[in-house]
């Protein structure tokens, strides 16, 4: 990659890992003019093959379906393309994308398409987790992509970087490798700023670092440095070391085969969140929320208690039982979100039993799902 900045990243050892997620961006696999290219994918596949031969486990999160679809129809990448067209292009390109990966490996690859809904719903989240773990047990190589054909929110955000971070937590990975077309994270855009300095290691991401990030790097890709930082932030919060490197660099790919790494290393948080608490903290919430008083807030924050109906003022929105919702403290200073969790009752049911004792739930509703509105095991403080 040619940049105006000439400063180089240092060579360092890879994290100690047994199971990893490798995220590969669109710019490494395809463009809208020529379609798929094995040029950069081959080096990444050699890294995966060597890792598998060493008894390690790898899951690939692969972008590129939309770019391949464009090439099939001989369309150029354009800004502001209608969502339906992008979804159609993704459907066209997905089969060829999986075919590209399969040609590199003797073992079977398994396509897994995920949406935000799969990660928001606890039952479907756990089902996805079980399937991926079973695919690894069977010796297959899972290839994951956002289900662009049906996922409105994800296509709008262009967020396979964050998807990779969530998948890494989903499968209890030790490391997340993000392959892109830039050498790593710099203090500024190295393509335009000759004074941009490489950042070899990040102990903790700060608002200033996010401010350094720009938008999408290529016409064919939808991710940019900011989404990579967001992904690193999520992964490290779950105790997963994250490595950002240049997948177009022969030298960087050669080092991977030697157990080394050149790029930016994001170190994990000191205290690893439990997998369930991580899920509660990061999956999207439904609109609305559960409004609580100061007494309930103290019980949640100081005593680690469950949320009972007696401390609930009301519920806003139209969420259902089992949805992820915010818990909002309402007092003289206003309203602020203090927690999020899985509600055992719908918004309509909560409005009926608010301010009541738990033993009254059955007589008011004619049934009950337990004494808690949100159980402490299903709740995380913010």
Automatic annotation (TrEMBL):
<feature type="binding site">
    <location>
        <position position="148"/>
    </location>
    <ligand>
        <name>substrate</name>
    </ligand>
</feature>
<dbReference type="InterPro" id="IPR041739">
    <property type="entry name" value="G5K_ProB"/>
</dbReference>
<comment type="similarity">
    <text>Belongs to the glutamate 5-kinase family.</text>
</comment>
<dbReference type="InterPro" id="IPR001057">
    <property type="entry name" value="Glu/AcGlu_kinase"/>
</dbReference>
<dbReference type="GO" id="GO:0003723">
    <property type="term" value="F:RNA binding"/>
</dbReference>
<keyword id="KW-0418">Kinase</keyword>
<dbReference type="InterPro" id="IPR036974">
    <property type="entry name" value="PUA_sf"/>
</dbReference>
<keyword id="KW-0808">Transferase</keyword>
<keyword id="KW-0067">ATP-binding</keyword>
<comment type="function">
    <text>Catalyzes the transfer of a phosphate group to glutamate to form L-glutamate 5-phosphate.</text>
</comment>
<dbReference type="InterPro" id="IPR036393">
    <property type="entry name" value="AceGlu_kinase-like_sf"/>
</dbReference>
<keyword id="KW-0028">Amino-acid biosynthesis</keyword>
<feature type="binding site">
    <location>
        <begin position="222"/>
        <end position="228"/>
    </location>
    <ligand>
        <name>ATP</name>
    </ligand>
</feature>
<dbReference type="GO" id="GO:0005829">
    <property type="term" value="C:cytosol"/>
</dbReference>
<feature type="binding site">
    <location>
        <position position="63"/>
    </location>
    <ligand>
        <name>substrate</name>
    </ligand>
</feature>
<dbReference type="InterPro" id="IPR001048">
    <property type="entry name" value="Asp/Glu/Uridylate_kinase"/>
</dbReference>
<dbReference type="InterPro" id="IPR002478">
    <property type="entry name" value="PUA"/>
</dbReference>
<dbReference type="GO" id="GO:0004349">
    <property type="term" value="F:glutamate 5-kinase activity"/>
</dbReference>
<feature type="binding site">
    <location>
        <position position="160"/>
    </location>
    <ligand>
        <name>substrate</name>
    </ligand>
</feature>
<feature type="binding site">
    <location>
        <begin position="180"/>
        <end position="181"/>
    </location>
    <ligand>
        <name>ATP</name>
    </ligand>
</feature>
<dbReference type="InterPro" id="IPR015947">
    <property type="entry name" value="PUA-like_sf"/>
</dbReference>
<feature type="domain" description="PUA">
    <location>
        <begin position="288"/>
        <end position="374"/>
    </location>
</feature>
<comment type="pathway">
    <text>Amino-acid biosynthesis; L-proline biosynthesis; L-glutamate 5-semialdehyde from L-glutamate: step 1/2.</text>
</comment>
<feature type="binding site">
    <location>
        <position position="23"/>
    </location>
    <ligand>
        <name>ATP</name>
    </ligand>
</feature>
<keyword id="KW-0641">Proline biosynthesis</keyword>
<dbReference type="InterPro" id="IPR005715">
    <property type="entry name" value="Glu_5kinase/COase_Synthase"/>
</dbReference>
<protein>
    <recommendedName>
        <fullName>Glutamate 5-kinase</fullName>
        <ecNumber>2.7.2.11</ecNumber>
    </recommendedName>
</protein>
<dbReference type="InterPro" id="IPR019797">
    <property type="entry name" value="Glutamate_5-kinase_CS"/>
</dbReference>
<dbReference type="Pfam" id="PF01472">
    <property type="entry name" value="PUA"/>
</dbReference>
<keyword id="KW-0547">Nucleotide-binding</keyword>
<dbReference type="InterPro" id="IPR011529">
    <property type="entry name" value="Glu_5kinase"/>
</dbReference>
<keyword id="KW-0963">Cytoplasm</keyword>
<dbReference type="GO" id="GO:0005524">
    <property type="term" value="F:ATP binding"/>
</dbReference>
<dbReference type="Pfam" id="PF00696">
    <property type="entry name" value="AA_kinase"/>
</dbReference>
<dbReference type="GO" id="GO:0055129">
    <property type="term" value="P:L-proline biosynthetic process"/>
</dbReference>
